[in-house]
Write a structure and sequence with these properties.
alpha+beta, 3 helices, about 45% strand, 2,3-Dihydroxybiphenyl 1,2-Dioxygenase, domain 1, four-stranded mixed sheet, about 140 residues
Length: about 140
Protein backbone atom coordinates (compact mmCIF):
# COMPACT_ATOMS: atom_id res chain seq x y z
CA UNK A 1 0.00 0.00 0.00
CA UNK A 2 1.53 3.30 -1.07
CA UNK A 3 0.04 6.25 0.77
CA UNK A 4 0.59 9.95 0.38
CA UNK A 5 0.30 12.43 3.26
CA UNK A 6 -3.08 13.92 4.02
CA UNK A 7 -3.72 17.62 4.55
CA UNK A 8 -6.30 18.52 7.20
CA UNK A 9 -7.23 22.03 8.29
CA UNK A 10 -9.10 22.46 11.60
CA UNK A 11 -10.32 25.44 13.57
CA UNK A 12 -8.91 26.37 16.96
CA UNK A 13 -9.81 29.09 19.43
CA UNK A 14 -6.21 30.24 20.13
CA UNK A 15 -3.07 29.65 18.07
CA UNK A 16 -0.76 29.88 21.09
CA UNK A 17 -2.84 27.18 22.80
CA UNK A 18 -2.69 25.01 19.64
CA UNK A 19 1.10 25.52 19.41
CA UNK A 20 1.52 24.48 23.06
CA UNK A 21 -0.75 21.43 22.65
CA UNK A 22 0.28 20.04 19.24
CA UNK A 23 3.87 21.26 19.24
CA UNK A 24 5.06 21.12 22.83
CA UNK A 25 2.75 18.56 24.45
CA UNK A 26 2.37 16.06 21.58
CA UNK A 27 5.76 16.83 19.99
CA UNK A 28 4.55 17.42 16.43
CA UNK A 29 7.14 19.57 14.59
CA UNK A 30 5.91 22.96 13.44
CA UNK A 31 6.12 23.92 9.78
CA UNK A 32 5.06 27.17 8.14
CA UNK A 33 2.87 29.50 10.13
CA UNK A 34 1.33 32.96 10.08
CA UNK A 35 -0.74 35.09 12.44
CA UNK A 36 -3.81 33.09 11.29
CA UNK A 37 -2.61 29.46 11.09
CA UNK A 38 0.09 26.93 12.02
CA UNK A 39 1.20 23.81 10.10
CA UNK A 40 2.19 20.73 12.12
CA UNK A 41 3.86 17.51 10.97
CA UNK A 42 1.56 14.81 12.39
CA UNK A 43 3.39 11.55 11.67
CA UNK A 44 4.27 12.83 8.18
CA UNK A 45 0.85 14.37 7.51
CA UNK A 46 0.04 18.07 7.33
CA UNK A 47 -2.26 19.25 10.10
CA UNK A 48 -3.09 22.95 9.87
CA UNK A 49 -4.68 24.77 12.80
CA UNK A 50 -6.60 27.89 11.74
CA UNK A 51 -7.62 30.53 14.23
CA UNK A 52 -11.39 30.99 14.48
CA UNK A 53 -12.28 33.70 17.00
CA UNK A 54 -15.98 32.90 16.62
CA UNK A 55 -16.08 29.41 18.09
CA UNK A 56 -18.88 28.64 20.55
CA UNK A 57 -19.33 30.61 23.79
CA UNK A 58 -17.12 28.10 25.64
CA UNK A 59 -14.54 28.28 22.83
CA UNK A 60 -15.06 24.68 21.74
CA UNK A 61 -15.84 22.95 18.47
CA UNK A 62 -19.26 21.27 18.65
CA UNK A 63 -19.73 17.54 18.08
CA UNK A 64 -21.77 14.47 18.96
CA UNK A 65 -20.99 10.79 19.54
CA UNK A 66 -21.92 7.37 18.16
CA UNK A 67 -21.92 4.05 20.01
CA UNK A 68 -19.02 1.79 18.89
CA UNK A 69 -17.73 -1.23 20.81
CA UNK A 70 -19.30 -0.05 24.07
CA UNK A 71 -17.93 3.51 23.84
CA UNK A 72 -19.28 6.90 22.81
CA UNK A 73 -17.03 7.69 19.84
CA UNK A 74 -16.89 11.45 19.18
CA UNK A 75 -18.02 12.73 15.77
CA UNK A 76 -16.38 14.43 14.05
CA UNK A 77 -12.88 13.22 14.85
CA UNK A 78 -9.62 12.74 13.00
CA UNK A 79 -6.30 11.10 13.59
CA UNK A 80 -3.63 8.84 12.19
CA UNK A 81 -3.37 5.10 11.59
CA UNK A 82 -0.07 3.75 12.90
CA UNK A 83 1.65 0.41 13.14
CA UNK A 84 0.77 -1.30 16.39
CA UNK A 85 4.27 -0.67 17.75
CA UNK A 86 4.07 3.05 16.88
CA UNK A 87 0.62 3.19 18.47
CA UNK A 88 1.90 1.60 21.69
CA UNK A 89 4.71 4.19 21.91
CA UNK A 90 2.28 7.05 21.20
CA UNK A 91 -0.24 5.68 23.73
CA UNK A 92 2.51 5.65 26.37
CA UNK A 93 3.40 9.25 25.51
CA UNK A 94 -0.26 10.30 25.51
CA UNK A 95 -0.79 8.76 28.96
CA UNK A 96 1.99 11.00 30.26
CA UNK A 97 0.75 14.28 28.70
CA UNK A 98 -3.04 14.01 28.28
CA UNK A 99 -5.03 14.90 31.39
CA UNK A 100 -8.36 13.47 30.22
CA UNK A 101 -9.09 10.86 27.57
CA UNK A 102 -12.43 10.58 25.81
CA UNK A 103 -11.60 6.88 25.43
CA UNK A 104 -8.56 5.50 27.26
CA UNK A 105 -6.06 3.50 25.16
CA UNK A 106 -7.28 -0.08 24.64
CA UNK A 107 -7.48 -2.82 22.02
CA UNK A 108 -10.78 -2.76 20.14
CA UNK A 109 -12.34 -5.75 18.35
CA UNK A 110 -9.88 -8.03 20.14
CA UNK A 111 -9.46 -11.38 18.39
CA UNK A 112 -11.56 -10.25 15.41
CA UNK A 113 -10.71 -9.11 11.90
CA UNK A 114 -9.73 -5.47 12.16
CA UNK A 115 -8.38 -5.71 15.72
CA UNK A 116 -6.81 -2.36 16.57
CA UNK A 117 -5.36 -0.31 19.36
CA UNK A 118 -7.25 2.95 19.77
CA UNK A 119 -7.42 6.03 21.96
CA UNK A 120 -9.34 9.30 21.84
CA UNK A 121 -8.75 12.71 23.37
CA UNK A 122 -9.64 16.30 22.52
CA UNK A 123 -7.42 19.30 21.92
CA UNK A 124 -8.08 22.45 23.98
CA UNK A 125 -10.53 23.71 21.33
CA UNK A 126 -12.60 20.52 21.50
CA UNK A 127 -11.36 18.87 18.28
CA UNK A 128 -11.53 15.11 18.91
CA UNK A 129 -8.54 13.03 17.84
CA UNK A 130 -8.22 9.25 17.44
CA UNK A 131 -4.97 7.39 17.05
CA UNK A 132 -5.22 3.75 16.08
CA UNK A 133 -2.69 1.01 15.47
CA UNK A 134 -2.87 -2.19 13.43
CA UNK A 135 -0.50 -5.14 13.42
CA UNK A 136 -0.98 -5.50 9.63
CA UNK A 137 -2.28 -2.19 8.25
CA UNK A 138 -2.35 -3.34 4.63
CA UNK A 139 -4.68 -6.28 5.33
CA UNK A 140 -6.64 -5.04 8.37
CA UNK A 141 -7.39 -1.37 7.79
CA UNK A 142 -10.36 -1.95 5.47
CA UNK A 143 -11.08 -5.59 6.35
CA UNK A 144 -14.76 -6.51 6.76
Amino acid sequence: MSLTPFHLAIQVRHLAEARAFYGEKLGFPEGRSSEQWIDFNMFGHQLVTHHNPQLGKDGSVRGTSNHVDGHGVPVPHFGVVLTFEEWERFADKARSVIDEFIIEPYVRFQGQVGEQGTLFFADPSGNALEFKGFRDIEHELFAK
